[in-house]
Amino acid sequence: MTAHHRIKTALALAATLGVLPAAAASARPALDRPAGGYGSSPLPTVEVVRTTHNSGFDWGDAGIGAAGGVGLSVLALGCGLGITGRRDRRPRRSVAAAS
To answer: Which of 28, 34, 59, 72 can pair with 39 through a Cys bridge, CB separation 3.0 to 4.6 Å?
Structure first.
């Protein structure tokens, strides 16, 4: 295994492991609120929002989802090619064998 290949593998592993703590940190519950409603915080106000029911297909959301899927696929393909490395598959001839 060459040093260049080891560096690529280490960078890919570090990038993958760097994403995991960010996802776990977003799932942490809020512990700074008083339990049972005690404390000096005022009661929350209620805001009524009226919406209309739209059962049509939203092309904007579909485009965002498709672009995200294509982007993730390209990223996965690039990482896969970077990790495996593109090597020349032809056998190399030495100078002594060619003479």
So the answer is: 34
Amino acid present at 70: V
- Reading the block at residue 84, the tokens are 């495996």
Residues 54-99 have pLDDT tens digits of: 778 889 999 999 999 999 999 999 998 888 876 666 666 766 655 5
Within the chain, residue ranges assigned H as helices are: 3-25, 59-84, 95-98
6-59 confidence digits (pLDDT tens): 777 877 777 776 665 655 555 555 555 555 555 566 778 889 988 887 778 889
Predicted TM-score of the model (pTM): 0.36
* Residue listed under structure tokens 């005690």: 38
Token pair of 52 as six digits: 């209309």
- Look at residues 14, 3, 2, 1 and name the one whose alpha carbon lies nearest to residue 79: 14
CA–CA separation, 57 and 45 (whole Å): 34
